[in-house]
Write a structure and sequence with these properties.
8 helices
Length: 193
Amino acid sequence: MLKRLYHWTLDLAGHRHARWALAGVSFVESSFFPIPPDIMLVPMVLAQRARAWALAAIAMTASVLGGMLGYAIGFFLMAGIGQMILGIYGLEDKFAQFTAQYHEYGAWIVFAFGLTPLPYKLITIASGAAELNLAVFVFASIAARGLRFFAVTALLYWLGPQVRDFIEKRFGLAATLFVVLLFGGFIAVKYLL
């Protein structure tokens, strides 16, 4: 079944609306969707090497815009509902400590989460909740998401045929590795935050 999904995604990469789908997935993943845009970016770059850099730019731009939605969710919902919940549980002081640390290291936290398979959406929402400077958030997001998507694209661009051969010959291993990285990111967040 996964191999069929892989081939379907490769076919989708050639569809005339594939770039819009990549932008949509990149946007929603940054604020609430659980699946990273790499699921679409990798096969699209493999299928359309001539458009590789444009695809990376689409993923980066949509991801940063989606991150701004996540920031808005944290900023606006935390101000009302979030404060009420903190009050019920007596966590106002702990949130104040978190916010102070976040203001000190926020740009680095956003950058680190934006680069890795760790759930970026958690940081976008936390950035808004902690009222991290929006310009700092956007700059760190552009740097991290740009580096991430352009690095993946560069590897695929230069090693594309070998990567595609590896995926197709060892599909089970490649799928397992991806799932381990995806869930490893969620587990790491649980124990690091």
